[in-house]
Specification:
α2 crosses α4, α4 packs parallel to α5 and α8 runs parallel beside α9. 45% of the residues lie in helices and 12% in strands. The chain has an 8-stranded parallel barrel with strand order 1-2-3-4-5-6-7-8, surrounded by 7 helices. The protein binds 3-methyl-2-oxobutanoic acid (KIV).
Length: 288
C-alpha cells in the first residue's frame, strides 16, 4: 500500500512531535470555511474553544457558552478537518456536577460531533478525578492551566498567572498532576516563559502555549485575534498576522456605496436572456 504523504494528526503523533523536537501548531476554529483553510494550511490541532462565546457569539465571557452551542460549532470543524486533530472544549458547568454528567457531555463531543478529544480547564483534585474518569472511558483529554478563563469571577479580570514564585510552583504542580491523570497535552495560558519552560522540560506530554513564551512544545492562538477579525482589545501575547477587520470594513463600504449609486450589480454580475427571448418578452409587454 502506498504511504500516506499527509497522514492525519493523532494523539500519539503529537507526542512524537515533542520527542522529535518538532513544534506543534494549533489554532481555534468554530466553522467549516475557516477550519478548511486552517486544515489545508497544515495546522496540526484545531480547538473548538469556548472562546467561541466571546469571538463569535458576542458574550462578554466564556461562562454562558452551552454544550449545545459547542456541539453545533464542533460538527462543521470536524467536517472540514481532513488532517488536523479536532478537540472540543468542555464549557463551564459541563464537567462540574457529577461524573455521569461529565461523561455524557464529553461523549457528545466524540460521538455526536466527531471530535477526537476534549479539553478541560483546571486541575483541582475533583477536576483531576473527572479527567481520570473521562480517560478511563476512552475519551482523550487535554488539560489547561495558568489563566483559566472560566475562573473569571474568582480572578476579577484576565491576567498573567504565576509571576510570583509560590503561584509558579502551584501551576507547575498542577501541570504535573494533569500528566499523572493521563492527559495527552496541556495548554499553558498567560504564564511567564520561565514557568512554561520548566513545565515543558518536566512533562513528557506536549505543552501548547498561549501567552506562555517560546519554550512550549506548540503554540495556539484564538483565530479571530490572530487575523485581526474584531479589532478590539488584544492581550500582549497576540501577534496580529492579518487585519481582517479593516479588509471587511473596506469591502463592505465599497459595496454599500456601489449599491447606493446603482453601480452594482453591473452587466458583468447580472444574468441575461438570449436576445430573441428578450425581444419576445418586450413584445409581450407591449401587446399585453
Ligand atoms: O477557548 C479557547 O479558545 C481556549 C484557548 C485560548 C486555548 O481555551
Amino acid at each position: 500500500m502506498a504511504e500516506d504523504k499527509n497522514p492525519r494528526v493523532t494523539i500519539p503523533s503529537l507526542r512524537a512531535k515533542k520527542e522529535a523536537g518538532e513544534k506543534i501548531t494549533a489554532l481555534t476554529a468554530y466553522d467549516f470555511p475557516v477550519a478548511r483553510i486552517l486544515d489545508e494550511a497544515g495546522i496540526d490541532l484545531l480547538l473548538v474553544g469556548d472562546s467561541l462565546g466571546m469571538v463569535v457569539l458576542g458574550y462578554e465571557t466564556t461562562i454562558p457558552v452551552t454544550m449545545d452551542e459547542m456541539i453545533h460549532h464542533t460538527k462543521p470543524v470536524v467536517r472540514a478537518a481532513r488532517r488536523a486533530l479536532v478537540i472540543g472544549d468542555m464549557p463551564y458547568f459541563s464537567f462540574h456536577l457529577s461524573e455521569e454528567a461529565t461523561l455524557a457531555n464529553a461523549a457528545r463531543f466524540i460521538k455526536e460531533a466527531g471530535a477526537q478529544g476534549v479539553k478541560v480547564e483546571g486541575a483541582s483534585p475533583r477536576r483531576l478525578a473527572m479527567i481520570e474518569r473521562l480517560i478511563e472511558a476512552e475519551i482523550p483529554v487535554m488539560g489547561h492551566v495558568g489563566l483559566t478563563p472560566q475562573s473569571i469571577h474568582h480572578l476579577g479580570r484576565f491576567k498573567v498567572r504565576g509571576t510570583a514564585f509560590s503561584e509558579a510552583k502551584a501551576i507547575i504542580r498542577e501541570a504535573a498532576a494533569l500528566e499523572k491523570a493521563g492527559v495527552f497535552a496541556v495548554i499553558l495560558e498567560s504564564i511567564p516563559q520561565e514557568v512554561a519552560r520548566e513545565i515543558t522540560e518536566r512533562l513528557s506530554v506536549p505543552t501548547i502555549g498561549i501567552g506562555a513564551g517560546p519554550w512550549c512544545d506548540g503554540q495556539i492562538l484564538v483565530f479571530h485575534d490572530m487575523v485581526g477579525f474584531d479589532g478590539g482589545y488584544l492581550p500582549k501575547f497576540v501577534k496580529k498576522y492579518a487585519d481582517l477587520k479593516t479588509l471587511i470594513s473596506t469591502a463592505t463600504g465599497a459595496y454599500r456605496d456601489e449599491v447606493r449609486a446603482g453601480a452594482f450589480p453591473d452587466v458583468e454580475h447580472s444574468y441575461h436572456m438570449k436576445p430573441a427571448e428578450a425581444r419576445k418578452l418586450r413584445a409581450s409587454r407591449r401587446g399585453r
